[in-house]
TrEMBL record, chain A:
It comes from Zingiber officinale. GO terms for cellular component: SCF ubiquitin ligase complex. Pfam families: DUF7885. Residues 239-455, 467-634 form the F-box/LRR-repeat protein 15-like leucin rich repeat domain. This is F-box/LRR-repeat protein 15-like leucin rich repeat domain-containing protein. The lineage of its organism: Eukaryota, Viridiplantae, Streptophyta, Embryophyta, Tracheophyta. It comes from the Eukaryota. One of its GO terms (biological process) is SCF-dependent proteasomal ubiquitin-dependent protein catabolic process. InterPro entries: F-box-like_dom_sf (IPR036047), FBXL15_LRR (IPR057207), Leu-rich_rpt_Cys-con_subtyp (IPR006553), LRR_dom_sf (IPR032675).
Length: 708, 515
């Protein structure tokens, strides 16, 4: 307990803005642990300084801190859940303050929810997306405990509840504003009718609620007239009638998602008459065709964001008719839509406010791109990801006109060369995001230009390119770089990484997947130079050893680490990570043959936030797996080809690990594990994937052994 | 062949046997078909394409008794009439198909001739070939007649003006004669009495009194406006609403017609025709004339029994329209935007619907009320089938109607039944199954009819189904397509046409004997 208080005080001293509070309270209150006072009742407001009672009072000094101050402290801790936990353990008043302060609850398992709800009475948002099963009983207790304080509930990844549960939540929580019921594939119209009684609902997600029909959505439309956001993605039971009724009744709608529904032009016409509609998604609406778009008359001036991706039946005639009536458009997504030609893009001329164009996966002509260049001059975002037919000529014409471009995605545009790069870098110097994976014709000189000109870059993806150390050195000017993906760049080495480490202190994500030239020295430099590192992928960087991991363990924010196929890594390295990185949530140590139970024991002890782990081919036995099973957060496990694992051990681990949602297992285990046990685990919400891959001989490790 | 097999399966044995016998005695061998055809066509109002689609059905059931030599005659006779057809393409395809068929028969006959020369003991094969020829010829005849049948509604419009020879007697007899006249030339001499006396049995055919004619007004109306025939025909039919509302499209300039206004009592009177001798009231003029026969022989003469509207066709027609006696009604002649009513029947229905109490309550749902009994019957057909319910309790038979209602009224919600999992899916399923039923019926007909190549199988089927001459399927398809909104099961429909046809023919034959 003292340790946690010490922790708190350290935070306060070191933290931002609490320098005035000097809490040299340890000496006077040697044992603050069991609070001697039952209830601090109402305390006088203390302004900044702490007035101390006399020693004989034997009062807990923390009790003198007013709630306001405690709340201010808690506000500062908002982004650090672990510190909040420590805070609440200081004393009873801190505990109470933390209980009252908490607004959001994200339980891992719904079973403990009633207790948690009793502790946190003023929670506004309950996120149950981590609970695979949420029964009606749980929803009853949510409704009963939180009453009108509840404003948002997320059930998007949960199963097991019915319309009765939703009804109780809606009945009890009059202030409910937000509801996410996506993926509730067995919810019927009765549930929709229940939702319809939530009068104050403003945001509702019903993605993949396939059983909800027009009748259900009709109830929602009539009942929830304050709706501003509605997502009906994949609601195949809903037709034009339901959509039209929504558009007639919910006049406040700003954001509507009709992707993958059966809505046709008739429904769309009514939707476009919504007075405040800003964001409309029509992804994969195959029932909307050119003919129906041609008859659209009513102008929809409010619309700003339009997503038409995957709408094959729409061609340039229909599109230009649609764009004619949506002149206020700022963002247009036409990914995987139709061929981008001159006639198609000429309708962009009317869109004076257009800022973002996404043409992912479209077939593009140079003429089409040039028309875009002529039509749009204020683009900030352009995505030509996986477009075929992008040429230097077309791309250059756009980037020359749109000097304000900040986000550019030219992934897999295989035809562009250094010429494009020269034009991009010379005109768009304010680029923040540049994604250009697999632009194979661009030479190493081209990449140097990027670093030399675009100093504002924050997100750079150069995977699978001709990048070399000189190119990396050129990025010395990009001090804001936070995401750097340089996987499959076989020409880079430690030297380049050292330059990055020196100049990019804000790096949060580094991807070195299969960049085989990287060794310990580079990683050590990165770990030292980029202390904010959160995500690192070192998969198949075969030269990596424990030394790299020991260095990375200094990055205390690290939450995702992939060291798949690094055969020189051993338990010692993993232990260092486990101890040094308490926020670790995802770990992939597949084919790290020397990682054994020792690492698992330590991992289970320290990495209490671990959500996902891949242990295939490691030297882990029943002991290690059972230890790991004690990690309460663990949801996703891949356990293939563990030599020391027996069916009994696996069964015990599965049983012990209550929060599992997905487990990949070797199919040879299937008959060996008792059927009832598997059924029980599945009932808890776990999905088994039985993989039938043969064991691969760790050839590379043999090679390594002979080399060293 | 065996005439006995042709008797309709559901008629009373006495009636049918007399009928069949009489037919066989009194009529030429080719007559029964013509008679049957014309009378069956006579009440198939508003029928167009469905006839031709369905007609081959007749083939396999009735082919057995046609003399082969008639085919060319009929063809010659009917050939020119296709010129004035409204769908010449269909007609042409039918005719060319027939031509093909005739060539086929020719080939078979030729092969028979060649075989006769040198083959002695191939009796079986010969019989089979003869059967084949018979089947083919029958098919051709039926096809021809049905092709001609598609023309009927058009002919009856044009005949009045274009063909004086046919038009004169037919206009005297009313539309039935017109229809029958196109079946062939000979029947005209025989058919008029039958049709003229058809009014005798019209009490018996409540559902299909459409073509018999209610009284003078209606006949006049029919003669005046042939095109509107189909609208105004089903007098007491359940779908009466359609033609009441249907005339808003008419745009007669004011003054071009004579406006009549009946008094309220007149409109609501149950009977409009009264016997001058005993005072008994009748709804229809024809019924009165039938009744008059009981008062003495002078009322039995053809002149007394004929419809008293002969001269109407020779004079230039006076267009007559009606006004509702209710002042302030849009249908009242004082109204600024006066819209006249077309017939007396329209007046009656309009007045009852708009200005009378709704005294007929549906006994099933106990909520819906009607002032016209036909409306109640229409409703009873659908009552209980309304699956789409609003929170206010209003029910709808169609989802879009419900959504229109919900969109219009503040606070109304679509009501979801408690066991919604079942019900929400159910209506669609019901509709789907209904439509597939319908589909199955139609495709079934086409299939059996339109496979000219397997004449053998047709023949066999025909032999089996000889009694299916009046098969319920046949009637369902031929006669109810235009009238009946909802696909019903075959057996439900079959009853009324059967009783009608048998009794109709029966009474005709009786009268024939009397005279």
């Amino acid at each position: 307990m003292a340790e946690t208080v010490g922790n708190l005080c350290r935070k306060m001293h070191g933290g931002e803005g609490f320098d005035t509070l000097t809490l040299d309270l340890f000496s006077r209150a040697p044992s603050p642990a069991p609070c001697s006072y039952s209830k601090p009742a109402k305390r006088p407001r203390v302004d900044g300084a702490v007035t101390m009672g006399k020693d004989e009072d034997r009062q807990n000094p923390f009790d003198f801190l007013s709630e306001e101050i405690l709340f201010l402290i808690l506000d500062r801790l908002e982004s650090e859940p672990l510190s909040k936990k420590s805070f609440s353990l200081v004393c009873r008043s801190f505990y109470t303050a933390e209980s009252c302060h908490r607004r959001e609850l994200t339980p891992l398992r719904s079973g403990l929810l009633p207790a948690a709800l009793a502790r946190y009475p003023s929670v506004e948002k309950v996120d149950l997306s981590l609970c695979p099963t949420v029964t009606d009983t749980v929803l009853f207790s949510v409704g009963n405990c939180l009453r009108s304080s509840l404003r948002s509930i997320d059930l998007s990844r949960s199963k097991g509840f019915s319309h009765a549960g939703i009804e109780s939540v809606v009945e009890n929580c009059a202030n409910l504003v937000e509801m996410n019921l996506s993926n509730a594939t067995d919810l019927s119209d009765a549930a929709a009718a229940a939702i319809g009684r939530a009068r104050n609902l403003e945001r509702l997600w019903l993605a993949r609620c396939k059983l909800v029909t027009d009748m259900g959505i009709g109830c929602i439309a009539v009942g929830c007239q304050k709706l501003k956001l509605l997502c009906l993605k994949w609601c195949l039971g809903i037709s034009d009638l339901g959509v039209a009724l929504v558009a007639v009744k919910c006049k406040q709608l700003r954001n509507l998602n009709l992707s993958f529904t059966l809505v046709t032009g008739a429904g769309l016409e009514v939707v476009l008459q919504l007075p405040y509609l800003e964001d409309l998604a029509l992804v994969g609406c195959l029932c909307i065709d050119d003919g129906s778009l041609l008859s659209l008359k009513h102008e929809c001036k409010s619309l700003q964001v339009l997503n038409l991706s995957n709408s094959q039946p729409i061609n340039h005639a229909g599109l230009s008719s649609l764009l004619n009536i949506t002149v206020g458009l700022r963002q247009l997504n036409m990914a995987y839509c139709c061929m981008v030609t001159h006639s198609l893009t000429s309708s962009f001329r009317k869109l004076a406010k257009l800022q973002s164009v996404k043409l992912d996966g479209c077939e593009v002509t140079t003429a089409g791109l040039k028309t875009i260049a002529n039509a749009c001059v204020s683009l900030t975002e352009l995505s030509l990801r996986k477009c075929s037919g992008v040429t230097d000529d077309g791309l250059s014409s756009i980037v020359m006109k749109n000097k304000g471009l900040t986000n550019l995605d030219i992934t897999c545009c295989g035809n562009i060369t250094d010429l494009s790069l020269a034009n991009i870098t010379s005109s768009c110097t304010s680029l923040i995001t540049l994604q250009m994976e697999s632009c194979t014709l661009v030479s190493k000189e081209g990449f140097r230009l990027i670093g030399q000109h675009c100093h504002l870059l924050e997100h750079l993806d150069l995977t699978d390119n001709e990048l070399d150390d000189e190119g990396l050195k050129a990025f010395s000017g990009c001090h804001k770089l936070s995401i750097l993906k340089i996987g499959i760049c076989l020409k880079i080495s430690d030297e380049g990484l050292i330059h990055i480490a020196k100049n990019c202190p804000k790096l949060r994500e580094l991807d070195l997947y299969r960049s085989a030239g990287v060794k310990d020295a580079g990683i050590r430099a990165i770990a030292h130079g980029c202390p904010q590192l959160q995500i690192t992928n070192l998969a198949y960087c075969t030269w990596i050893t424990d030394a790299s991991l020991r260095a990375l363990s200094k990055c205390s924010d690290l939450n995702t680490l992939e060291i798949r196929g690094c055969p020189q890594v051993s338990s010692a390295g993993v232990i260092a990570i486990a101890v040094g990185c308490p926020k670790l949530t995802k770990l992939d140590i597949k084919k790290c043959y020397y990682v054994n139970d020792a690492a698992m024991l330590i991992l289970a002890r320290f990495s209490r936030n671990l959500h996902q782990i891949n242990l295939s081919y490691c030297s882990i036995t029943n002991v290690g797996l059972l230890a790991l099973a004690s990690v309460g957060c663990l949801q996703n496990m891949t356990i293939l080809h563990l030599k020391g694992l027996t069916p009994n051990g696996l069964a015990a681990a599965l049983l012990a690990c209550g929060g599992l949602t997905k487990v990949k297992l070797n199919s040879s285990f299937k008959p060996l594990i008792p059927r009832p046990l598997l059924e029980h685990v599945e009932e808890r919400g776990c999905v088994f994937q039985w993989i039938d891959k043969p064991f691969q001989v760790p050839f590379s490790s043999l090679v390594q052994e002979t080399c060293t | 062949m065996d005439l006995k097999l042709r008797k309709p399966p559901e008629t009373s044995s006495r009636a049918s046997s007399t009928m069949v016998n009489d037919i066989s005695k009194n009529l030429k061998p080719d007559m029964p078909f013509i008679q049957f055809d014309s009378s069956s066509l006579g009440y198939s109002v508003g029928q167009d394409r469905s006839m031709s689609e369905v007609s081959p059905q007749v083939v396999n059931q009735s082919h057995c008794f046609y003399a082969p030599e008639r085919e060319t005659k009929i063809k010659n006779h009917l050939g020119p009439s296709s010129v004035i057809d409204w769908n010449p393409r269909l007609m042409l395809s039918n005719l060319s198909f027939l031509e093909q068929k005739i060539h086929q028969v020719q080939d078979i006959v030729r092969s028979i001739i060649s075989q006769e020369d040198h083959v002695v003991d191939r009796g079986n094969e010969l019989a089979a070939q003869q059967q084949l020829v018979t089947a083919d010829l029958t098919y051709i005849i039926i096809q021809l007649i049905s092709t001609a049948g598609t023309l009927l509604p058009n002919i009856k419009n044009t005949l009045l003006s274009t063909d004086p020879a046919v038009g004169q007697p037919s206009s005297a007899m009313g539309m039935n004669t017109n229809l029958s006249s196109c079946g062939g030339q000979k029947p005209i001499e025989i058919l008029p009495p039958e049709v003229a006396k058809s009014s005798e049995y019209d009490e018996l055919m409540k559902d299909f009194d459409a073509c018999v004619g209610e009284g003078d007004e209606l006949i006049k109306c029919l003669n005046n406006a042939g095109a509107e025939l189909s609208e105004s025909m089903p007098i007491d039919d359940h779908d009466a609403k359609d033609y009441d509302d249907g005339m808003d499209g008419e745009n007669l300039p004011p003054g071009s017609y004579e406006v009549l206004q009946l008094e309220k009592e007149e409109i609501l009177a149950p009977h409009t025709h009264f016997c001058l001798i005993c005072g008994k009231g009748f709804k229809r003029d024809a019924n009165l004339r039938m009744h008059m026969r009981g008062h003495g022989d002078e009322y039995k003469t053809p002149a007394a029994l004929a419809k008293p509207s002969k001269e109407a066709s020779s004079e230039p027609p006076i267009i007559r329209r009606y006004s509702c006696p209710f002042v302030g009604c849009k249908r009242n002649k004082e109204h600024k935007k006066f819209q006249p009513l077309k017939t007396i029947l329209c007046v009656k229905n309009h007045y009852k619907r708009s200005h009378c109490d709704k005294s007929y309550t549906c006994c099933r749902c106990k909520t819906k009320k009607f002032s016209v009994i036909a409306d109640l019957k229409t409703h009873e057909k659908h009552c209980g089938r309304d699956k789409w319910i609003c929170s206010c309790g209003t029910t709808f038979s169609r989802k879009d109607k419900l959504f229109g209602h919900v969109a219009l009224f503040q606070g109304h919600t679509p009501a979801i039944p408690m066991d919604d999992a079942k019900v929400s899916g159910a209506p669609d399923q019901v509709q789907a199954s209904e439509s597939t039923n319908g589909m199955a019926e139609h495709t079934g007909f086409n299939f059996t009819g339109n496979t000219p190549n397997d004449a053998q199988s047709l023949d066999i089927k025909g032999a089996d189904d000889c009694q299916g001459y009046f098969s319920p399927m046949n009637f369902d398809a031929c006669n109810f397509m235009g009238l009946d909104e909802f696909p019903r099961s075959v057996y439900e429909v079959s009853e009324s046409p059967f009783s009608f046809l048998s009794t109709g023919s029966f009474s005709f034959i009786q009268r024939h004997g009397e005279n």
